[in-house]
Amino acid sequence: MKVIDVIGRVVTLLNDESSVRWKRVELQKYLNDGYKAIVSLRPDANSLTAVVTLAAGIYQAPALTGLIRILDVQRNVAAESTKEAIAPIDKKVIDSMIPGWSNSAQSASISYWIPDMSTPTRFSVYPPATSAAQVDVLYSAIPTPHALSESQLDPFGGDVTAISINDEFVPALVDYILYRAHLKDSTASSIPKAQASYMAFQEGLKQ
Q: What is the mean pLDDT of the chain?
């Protein structure tokens, strides 16, 4: 779905088709914030894959644009690796199975990846990686924000920029934008509307 169509739904629900109370660029800011809110609650809403060259050793902090969570480290892809799949393993389990695993010999072929429960953008690997190790990583990222002008956001202007998440999340995105728009008013009637929109947003993200 196009950005202008999502914002069009919102202005209709706000009864503000002439954009007197809420300019479309303002609603676009709420749309961009909605991406962050949605992906934070539903990492699968914007999941991507990338080949990551690992740092030598066990600790990995890949520099992936917009990264908010590592979802899976899938397989070895380095030319000198086994090209085999990589399994997730809990740190407590590998500590029990292979004491001293972090001091093992480095390899270009990774067998296990260990999620970092406190920092979801990082992970560890076993055996420790060489600097030549490369793996396929599935990760969740915040989409790059839109920066369309008011004229580009004109519903009759013909802009075809698509939203950056799957269309199944459009209802939740609309509810989030409505929530932010109603908060702007801060009147006795707008606060319940904002609360209702946020509740609808949360409900729409349940799996």
A: 95
